[in-house]
Amino acid sequence: MVKVRASLVSAIVALAHVSSVTPFCVPPFPNNTNGTNTTVQTSQSPGPFPTTALGRPPATYDVPGRLPGPPALASLSSAHELESEGPSFYRGSQRWHKQICGMSSFAGFTSATSALTADCLALADDAAEAGHLWYAKGFADNTTVLELRNHGTCSFGIRPPYADDMYGIVSGWYVGGVDVAEVVRTAVRDYDAGGLVGATGVMHCTISSAANVDVQWAIFGPGEQAEAGWWMAPPVPSSAGTKASVGRAVFSAVAAFWLPVLWYVVS
Asked: Which residues are within 8 A (CB) of 117 and not within 5 positions of it... i.e. 6 or more apart?
């Protein structure tokens, strides 16, 4: 009996020197009361998330009492400025000012889709009767034909003939009503085929000594306007010029003939 008591006292003393241990808790297996399937899971705290995503700017936080800034808006005005408005034309105010172009070159482009000759002759009559000058501007290239006049299936338009110097021309491009009538009638005479006609050409037109340009014209039918922008024409004839230039040439010829005669009489 004495030995049993001594053993109990020794055991109590040994337990008194052992540090307290957190009791081990085994959670029950979810929805299963079978102890043999009990699973121990050790929970781990997730790693910290980065405050800034790679490749993106840091997130912005609203400051109390301050409204967040509005999102950046694209400039509508700058986009509108980049958009080309395209060529346009207007009619001069002087009806009598209707012929300003010299001789024209010609090239025929009559095809099955060309304008009716009868419509083009009517267009020429209308242009001659209307008179005035027609001013064109706003060309972004030299392959866009701007239609100035139309009658039925026949249209007449102009464009810059050369791309390399069009941006240096500030006065625009222009043609008179009589100029239109003359080139249309000549084109009908030379390029009519089966009652159809299509043609283009280049002529030099002058308003003043500071405003004179080469103008390429085209006579085209329905659906041919885009194609007419690529029609090629010979350059302005070397003899083309203003009426003043022709007058000077005639005066020079007369002077060259009479000067020797006058010199002979005087001597």
From this structure: 188, 192, 195, 196, 197
What CA–CA distance (Å, rounded) separates 154 from 131? 18
Amino acid letter, 54: L
Buried b (16+ CB within 10 A) or exposed e, 87-116: bebeebeeeeebbbbbbbbbbbbbeeebbb
Pick from 176, 197, 189: nearest CA to 120? 197
Q: Domain spans of the chain? A: 87-236, 238-267
Query: Can you list the positions of beta strands (E) in the chain?
Result: 88-91, 101-104, 107-108, 115-116, 133-137, 146-151, 154-159, 173-176, 196-197, 199-208, 211-220
Average pLDDT over residues 132-147: 92
Taking the C-alpha atoms of residue 231 and residue 236, their distance in angstroms, rounded to an integer, is 15
pTM for the model: 0.58
* Residues 175 and 206 sit within 8 Å (Cβ to Cβ): no
Q: What is the pLDDT of residue 267?
A: 54
**18-31 pLDDT tens trace:** 444 444 444 444 44
Q: Is the pLDDT of residue 119 over 70?
A: yes
**In the chain, helix, strand, coil percent, each to 5?**
30, 20, 45
d(CA 244, CA 250): 10
Q: In the block, which residue shows the tokens 């010609």?
A: 106
